[in-house]
Amino acid sequence: MKFPLGRKARLAVLASGRGSNLASLIEAFPPGDPTAEVVLVISDKPGAAALRRAEDAGVRAVHVPWPDRLSFEQQAQTLLEDARVDLVCLAGFMRLLSARFVDDWEGRILNVHPSLLPLHKGLNPHRQVLAEGVSQTGCSVHFVDSGMDTGKVVAQRSVPVLPGDTEETLAARVLPLEHALYPEAVRLVLSGEVAP
Ligand code: GRF
Description:
Layout: E1 9-14, H1 20-28, E2 36-43, H2 49-56, E3 60-63, H3 69-82, E4 87-90, H4 99-104, E5 109-113, H5 125-132, E6 136-143, E7 153-160, H6 167-190
Parallel strand pairs: 1-2, 1-4, 2-3, 4-5
Antiparallel strand pairs: 5-6, 6-7
Helix pairs in contact: 1-6
The chain binds 5-O-phosphono-beta-D-ribofuranosylamine.
């Protein structure tokens, strides 16, 4: 499948926690939007706030347990296919997907990461930023490949690192940019302007 589709795209979001990026995607692509609609939310965590946010917005929300990667991916794949999903958005999804799953969704799976990739991949990016003493950080939306935060970058935004910053103040500065960036990046991919 290649973008643009020539019709409205069906999005799924995979989230493990709070779901603020999910909320920004739902808000950016409401049911009447001509570009895309969030049709499915999957979480590996039963009580995730992301599931509640989806339900509140009238979006199908499913907890898929993670006893092991294969079992999760098989169930998730069935749900994604049944919902005829075109693009998968990872948003605070705290698991690493297998190369096989990612290959199946090649060019159709995105992630948001709170750093200027390829810098500060993986866990605790804000801690890495402070430890290195760099003067800028930000957020990136990227295509997902089988590595950790290694796929091609679709779009980025940067913020300054200020004296006295902590992981919390940096996260609070970067998060609103993620919320603006993710829908923008989804539009870039759906329009075919950025391809893997
Ligand atoms: C975001 O900072 C995202 O970039 C990172 O985890 C956080 C998830 O936040 N991967 P939320 O669940 O979208 O509120």
